[in-house]
Structure formats: structure tokens, C-alpha cells
Amino acid sequence: MNGDFPPDTLRAWGGAAVERLARYLETVESRPVLARTKPGDLVSRLPRRAPEEPEPWEAIERDLDALIEPNLTHWQHPGFLAYFAVNSSVPGIAGEILAAGYNQVGILWRSSPASNELEQGMVRWLAELVGLPDSFDGQLADTASGASLIALAAAREQAFPDVRKTGLAGLPPGVVYCSELAHSSIDKACVVLGLGLAGLRKVPHDDAFRMDVAALERAIAADRAAGRRPIAVVATAGTTAVTSVDPLPEIASLCEREGLWLHVDAAYAGAAASLPEKRPLFAGWERADSVVFNPHKWLFLPLECTALLFRRMERVRRAFSVVPHYLETPEGAAGVREYMDYGVQLGRRFRALKAWIALRTFGAAGVRERLRAHLDLARQLEEVLRSRADVEIVAPVPFSVVVFRFTGTGLSPEEEDALNRGILERVNEDGRFFISHAVVRGRFVLRAAFGSLRTEPRHVTAFVGVLEEAARASRKALG
Length: 479
Ligand SMILES: Cc1ncc(COP(=O)(O)O)c(C=O)c1O
Description:
By secondary structure, this protein is of the alpha/beta class. It has 15 helices and eleven strands. Helix 5 crosses helix 11 (about 315-320). The radius of gyration is 24 Å and the shape is globular.
């Protein structure tokens, strides 16, 4: 026996799946935003092996209700204020469905001209949207973590032009610099690139959580004096914990003087550069060698879609291009863009399709309007919390994330940490909101990140009520 299910089955199952998702989005607010699952709950209920005989779609539907939906953390819930939001907007879902069905495997231009050329077009749209100059070119990568790895591989290639032949043995130890608040993906990239964590310098930040450029300069000089080879600086525009922006112009000037690669990680905040009033915060990033930001964070696309932009694309090609005979084509020989030459992946998904659909149906003005709505929600919460004597706003709020902690007279710093830990757990158990935490200057702090397309001002008001209740209970538990 051979053959797929007939297209009419797709009509039936696809229709049921879309109907289910529409219902899911209609009812998501009534569900507890954070899954109430205990570790092992789901896996213990799965059969040990796949069924021998085919099962009907109805059995799948039953188990979506019984096994899957109760164990989802609802990222589309209006009370999802943890981490950074990732929206599955309606255009994003439609784009994902089409991309799954067309299933273009973008190994070569000829394996999908549509995917290849739409990606080139979307890179241009996205760069233009956030105000990066025409000279930036790039790709839609999977995640910011994967994208920063690619960028730092290109930086390593620039510092050690023979590294792909020789490996690192015999070369001076290479060093990458970032602030103490940079994302852990930079640590991982250094591990994967053979620089090791010993090859990553975490530079201190100033009072506004921005990389201390004088300390960066001293670290570079000390490494050079010790015979090490500085490779790259990673500046963050929108740090994960507090959304601070490193001093990009000063870091760019230093990188230019020192001949270092500048990579700007704007995973979450980069989308805000589409707003004229926020663009000054990004001044200097146009001097970077590479910039990363995530349409799957704050441009309303489902995972995965990361814009990875380069000032000189050719340098990335030098780091990655390996063309075996079976992938040689006349177009490739004639110089057509082959995305396999610019990263680790050979097969690549048709990510550009959902970006194209979303940017057209929201429109750039619609994107800006929604981003401003998120900024307003953050402002609303910040104002309420600032008016309270028992709350400290821990960091400036340049975007849509408010970082704060409850305080208490007579409490030691450790007791205050316990108070805030208790608040976090109580808020998240309540079911209406999900927030996350960070550690800032050694202290446990709470983060409320606005970015869901479904959050409204009334949710902020309700959130303050839940916070107050949690704070009361947590204080009581401390005694
Ligand atoms: C600054 C920064 N960089 C990178 C990442 C990683 O993003 P991704 O999940 O796309 O790898 C994050 C995630 O929150 C981030 O905040």
C-alpha cells in the first residue's frame, strides 16, 4: 500500500484544525495561562508505542481535548506577561498553514525560487521597517540564538581567515565581549565556536544597565597585552532582564578603532525601531556588522522567524559556503543567492511567507499602532506601581517591559527576595496572569512584559489587583 490521505481528508481535518484553533483563541482567556501540569503528567499517559492499526481523526480530537490542551501554557492568553510574548497572529497562523502545505525545502534557489526570492524581499522590507540602510542584506533564520551563532562564526572568520581549514589549534585564544546582561545564547555561541566560556568577557554595566564602554576598552587592551585576539563585541539593544540598550555609538566607534566585529542583539526590542519616537535608541546599529531581531517576538509571527542582517553578506559566505557536487547548479555558478551558503542549515523552511502575509495584512501602520498599544500598557502599569510606596521600579522602561520589586520596611534584602519569590508563585498559581522574574544587581525582581495582541488596559487593572492580593499573602507567609 502506498499513498497519502486524499486531499478531501485535508479539507476535513484541516477544517477541523482551523475551527479548533479559532475556538481556542476565542476561549483562551478562560483557561489558566500557565499550565497546571506536573512534570511527567503527559508522558505517563502516552502509550509506550505508536498504534499498530490506523486510528480515526475523532481519536485525535479526543486526545487534543484530554491530553494536549490542558497541558498547554497559553502564550496567546491576554494575561501572558512572562519572558517576551510570541504571538500566533491570525495572518501568522495562515502563513504557517500554507508554508506547511507548500513545504518548500529551501536548499537551493532552484529547490524553491518563491521561498528564496520572497525571503530576499522580506529581508529588505524588515530592514527598511526598522530603519536600517539598504546596504544591509541577510536572511530569515530560525531563532536569535541560531542567528547570533552564525554572526559570531562570521566574526571568527574575519579574525582568523584560515580557521575553517586549520581549526583553532595553534591560533591565539579568541575573545568575544558582551555585557553582563547579554543573553545566554552568546555564551552558547562561544562554546560552539570553540572559544569556550574562557573566550567570553562579561563587561560590567553602568547604573542604567548599559555596557560600561571604558571597562570594555580596558578589557580589550588587557587581552591584547596577554596575547589573546579580540574578535567581536556583542551589544544588546533590549536586554532580556531589563530591556536596557547598550551605548551603540560609542561601542561602534570602539569596534571601528579596534577592527572588531560588532554584533547587535536586538532580539525583542528591534521591532520598536519601526517607531520614529523609539528609533533614536537604536542610533549606531547601522554601523554594526550584524544585527539580529525577532519578528517572532514583537512583530506578531509564530516561531520561528528571526531577521539576521549583515552589512557585508560576503563575509558570512566565506565562513559557511561548502558546495558539494550534488548541490552545484548553473544558477549557483552564476552567482544567485543560495541561502545554504550563509549558515548551518541546508534545508530551510519557507519563513518568508508568514512575514509577507502579516506585513501586508497588518500594514506597517498597523504594526506601529500595535507596538504603541503595548508601550501604553507598560506605561499604565508603570504609573500605578510608581505611585505605591511598597514597590520599587528597578529599571527605566524604554519599551514594553516593567521590572519591579515589592519592598518592605524592616525586611532584609534576603527577606525581600523571599517576599517577591512568594508573589511570583502566587500570581502564577492564580491562573489569570503569568509573569517571570530576573535577578538584577543580585536581587530577585519581577518582570511584566507586554507584547500579546490580546492584552488590553482592563487586564493591567486586573493584574494590579492580583499583584496586591499576592503581595498581601506573601507578606503574611513571611510573618
Ligand atoms: C536579547 C535576547 N537575545 C536572544 C534571545 C533568544 O531568542 P531566541 O529564542 O529567538 O533564540 C532572547 C530571548 O529572550 C533575548 O532576550
